[in-house]
Amino acid sequence: LGGWHRVALSPDGTTTLEQLADRAPKRTVVVVGAEGPGLGAEVRTACDELVGIPVRPGTDSLNVATAVALALYRLAG
């Protein structure tokens, strides 16, 4: 995807959604995996960065539809 910034949503992302939103390029692709197994290693490697959405301690992760909705809303603004 030439010219696109590839972002993988993952609970173990090293960048937070807020950090990304502060500097996200206009041409950003958000990549998500299936609930449970998440993204495979090959897909994660192909992305430019892993982005996480902080959740309360003791919470495993958000469901994928909720995570995508939050990411798209935050990146659109």
How would you summarize what this structure contains?
With 77 residues, this protein is of the alpha/beta class.
Number of strands: 4
- Rounded radius of gyration (Å): 12 Å
Overall shape: it is globular
Distance between the termini: 23 Å
In which range does the helix fraction lie?
25-40%
The parts where pLDDT drops under 50 for at least 5 residues are none
Strand ordering within the main sheet: 2-4-1-3
User: What class would the helix/strand composition place it in?
Assistant: alpha/beta
* SSE order: EEHEHEH
Q: Keywords, please?
A:
single chain, 77 residues, alpha/beta, four-stranded parallel β-sheet, 3 helices, 19% strand, globular
Q: Any chance you could write out the topology, listing elements then pairs?
A:
Layout (H helix, E strand, L loop, with lengths): L4 E5 L5 E2 H5 L6 E4 L9 H6 L2 E4 L11 H13 L1
